[in-house]
Amino acid sequence: MTDIIFRTGEATVLAAEGQATDAMPEIVIGAVNGPVGTAFASMLGQSVGHTRMFVVRDLNQAVKPAAIMTSKVTIPSAEYVDLLGGVVQGAIGDAILDSVIDGVIPKDIVDEICIILTVWLDLRCAEDPNLDKADLYRTNYEATKLAIKRAMNGEPTIDELIANRKTIKHYALDGVVEY
């Protein structure tokens, strides 16, 4: 059995100019017989406005390790669901599978671990007639791969966080806090 009990990762990949396709997944990876597995199974029911779905690459192609995703925002429309369960889900599924192919997630443990993802999809995407679906795929694919890598490698380390404590701050703190 795996010793991966509870690992977390996050990443942000910014959209191309003029798009609202930023991706900001937050993930937890852990053993199916541990707290992450319990949380995963508990998410199988639905919550109004926060649809949960298995990550699939296409029909009949659920990824391994098993992954479940949910939106960070309340889902407002069928168009939003189509993007979340289409391009975004496909990108996330490809990123998970490629993480196994690349060896970031060891192939021999894919049935022993599971992944929970909270996914950001800007509400404007569903209403944008000029939405670049290729950019939506790119940002979600890259961010998911990076979040998985960070979770599996324990990044950032506490030493990195301590070292950059006074040089990196949350963007929302500009003009609020001076370092």
UniProtKB/TrEMBL annotation:
Gene Ontology terms, MF aspect: carbon-nitrogen lyase activity
Keyword ATP-binding set for record: no
InterPro entries per record: HCHO-activating_enzyme (IPR014826), HCHO-activating_enzyme_sf (IPR037075), Ribosomal_Su5_D2-typ_SF (IPR020568)
Domain Formaldehyde-activating enzyme: from-to ranges: 8-171
GO biological process: carbohydrate biosynthetic process
Keywords: Lyase
Name recorded for this polypeptide: Aldehyde-activating protein
Lineage of source species: Bacteria, Pseudomonadati, Pseudomonadota, Alphaproteobacteria, Hyphomicrobiales
